[in-house]
Design goal:
With 380 residues, this protein is of the alpha+beta class. It has 3 domains: 6-184, no CATH class; 195-338, no CATH class; 345-377. The chain has 9 helices and 14 strands. The longest helix is centred in the C-terminal third of the chain and has 35 residues, at 255-289.
């Protein structure tokens, strides 16, 4: 049965005034630490039951374990953080194991305080998540004017439906963001008879059957020199710290190294934003004009095993383009189909249906059928 609604999220940057306040930073660190503690404790409990070949615990059993065991043995869990952040961590554990048992993802891992980005989530209950567009204020359970911890954010766009959950994030650069998840109803676009087939490639990112070509941007090559320069600076400063360290002691990290590390994190964030923007724009362009969309299926793992095109394959983000197109197509009422992985599409003549195995060479972009003398373009 098709879902009658979808959950989307908008990401807003938290204002510097709030991000630099001691009250907000203390609450964020406590919330992240306690959420991580609950997540790891619940995961350990589930793993022990699976080792003993016991049945998978229900969500009610895990909830009792949280309130009757963890909170009793650890009274500090009741003091500084609202209960919804801890319940959200438990829900994330349940959803992660549900996907694992369905073979949709790998076994969940323990969370670490050394891995970025650090975040905690909360869910809507009795209107505990509010936002004021006029003043740019987002209210959570313990982050509101009543407690003296006001969270101001740059609300650059309004939500299109009721709020369902929220998540506060701190990235590697040190900037804080809040993501508001809301419920949106499907918005079908006007139906059209236009259908399209899409070829994924490296020279041209997307080649459509109607002749439309979306070029590859090669974001890694555009930023490669800056990345290398920053990495060299980081390496030299770290080696200098190791040389000046006492024998058997830990190297003392300098402030200049931390500055270079922050600069490198900004470059990585910029690269990620460029890719995301390109994929979203390409997906929106495809979905808005076509009723039926057909993608080819690529063996990405096999393509990455060849180190020559591996960097270009990673930079192309084939999976993200297809996933964005699928998500937008569901909301817009479009149909997306993926053909079989080993279907020899580029080796078959469109008229005589004869197969030409020589086309497996990647350097061949067009060939002529020996039976009907039709010119076949492999990328269309």
């Amino acid at each position: 049965m098709q879902k009658s609604y979808f959950i989307l999220g908008f990401k807003y940057r938290i204002a510097d005034k709030t991000a630099k306040s001691e009250a907000f930073c203390d609450y964020f660190d406590n919330a992240v630490g306690q959420s991580r503690f609950v997540y790891n404790a619940v995961k350990e409990s589930i793993d022990k039951k699976q080792e003993n070949h016991a049945s998978f615990p229900s969500k009610a059993e895990l909830s009792r374990y949280l309130y009757q065991d963890l909170k009793v043995k650890n009274p500090w869990l009741k003091v500084t953080v609202d209960k919804f952040a801890l319940e959200k961590a438990l829900d994330e554990d349940c959803s992660a194991y549900a996907a694992f048992l369905k073979s949709q993802r790998r076994r969940p891992k323990f969370r670490s305080k050394y891995h970025s980005p650090q975040s905690f989530g909360t869910k809507i209950t009795n209107g505990n998540i509010k936002f004021d567009y006029a003043n740019g204020i987002v209210e959570l359970s313990y982050l509101n004017p009543r407690t003296g911890k006001v969270m101001q954010a740059i609300l650059h766009r309004s939500l299109e439906g009721p709020v369902k959950a929220a998540r506060c994030i701190k990235d590697r650069v040190g900037d804080y963001h809040v993501v508001l998840f809301y419920k949106v109803q499907p918005k079908p676009l006007p139906k059209t008879e236009h259908k399209i087939g899409i070829d994924l490639g490296l020279k041209s990112h997307l080649t459509c059957s109607d002749g439309t070509v979306i070029k590859s941007q090669h974001f890694i090559k555009q930023n490669e020199l800056r990345h290398k320069r920053t990495q060299r600076n980081m390496s030299s400063k770290l080696e200098c710290a190791k040389k000046n360290a006492k024998e058997g002691g830990q190297p003392r990290i300098s402030n200049n190294y931390l500055k270079e590390r922050k600069k490198y994190a900004k470059l990585c964030r910029k690269l990620k934003n460029q890719r995301d923007n390109h994929c979203h724009q390409a997906a929106s362009r495809i979905v808005s004009k076509n009723q039926g969309i057909v993608f080819e299926t690529l063996n990405i793992k096999g393509m990455l095993s060849n180190h020559h095109p591996a960097q270009a394959v990673q930079d192309a983000c084939f999976y993200k383009v297809k996933q964005n197109t699928k998500d937008k197509a569901k909301i817009a009422g479009r149909t997306v189909v993926e053909i079989e992985l080993w279907f020899p599409r580029s080796q078959l003549c469109t008229k005589s249906k004869q197969k030409n195995s020589a086309v497996k060479d990647l350097s061949v972009s067009s060939w002529e059928c020996q039976y009907c003398h039709t010119i076949i373009q492999t990328e269309i």
